């Protein structure tokens, strides 16, 4: 009987530990993710093979519990973010994930455009409407529209771009209404929304959405980019390099394992979050080169942070600063083939 009483504190402690693992804190934790080869993910019809590989680097992000918070607090290359820095006011985790997946789709489109134009192949677009990226709390769209809705018409006119929608809304005054047809989960819906002044810009009125163009790029030869549930815009540069490499005869990998990161828009490489974690992930995966956004040499650039992390972990990986897609291509064209390759 006495032994049973002695076991009770241990049982209670174990139950407390298990329970605390399921209790989330108002923080998110980011940590090094994976470096994935892009050739199995990207396929250009009739594309050329490569001896080395381009690699997509990722960061793992998740809600914090007591243990993950403490590990991040006292560990290296893990970042703690208050929940309000990740989720906007009124934004749910589902809204955030939906937005990240659309950013990935936009990233793929920008990468395809950059690669095909660099290869001298024309591209065309088919507009699919206006995508709702987020909803402003307290505005008329709240509770009526959702992140991920695709607006097809406004006041009976087909929408071909977000500029058309914004121009229409700008022509209206507070109290006037706009009628919208939209698609959600494959079904068509209709809503009539009044315009209301924005709290921060009372001289302007709107319905309270963040719209972006929803468009599909059309190219020949065809290209498939399978990203599953990977979200965010940071893979644009590496997508473009892999696509361009498959489109052209010269193998830009030169037999090396090449990782990197950076958004891509009109050929310009933009900064991303989590560069330190991506350097760690790329190093663990055996990358020999890493392209990092240079941000025109800014003191707090991704490139400088990447170099600092690289020195800290003692990597042999060559970290290369790039401002444009052309910078990366030019660097690879001048790179000598790896011994025993090419």
Q: Overview of this structure, please?
A:
By secondary structure, the protein is of the alpha+beta class. It folds into two domains: 33-85 and 96-122 and 220-334, Ribosomal Protein S5, domain 2, CATH 3.30.230; 124-217, Pdz3 Domain, CATH 2.30.42. The chain contains nine helices and 18 strands. The chain has helices spanning 2-21, 66-74, 83-86, 93-118, 162-170, 236-247, 275-284, 302-313, 325-334, and strands spanning 24-37, 42-44, 53-65, 79-82, 124-135, 150-154, 157-158, 177-184, 187-194, 196-197, 205-206, 209-218, 223-225, 257-260, 263-265, 268-270, 289-293, 318-322. A six-stranded mixed sheet has the order 4-1-3-14-17-18, sandwiched between helices. Strands 5, 6, 7, 8, 9 and 12 form a six-stranded antiparallel sheet that branches. It has a two-stranded antiparallel sheet with strand order 2-13. A hairpin with a 2-residue loop joins strand 8 and strand 9. The longest helix has 26 residues, at 93-118.
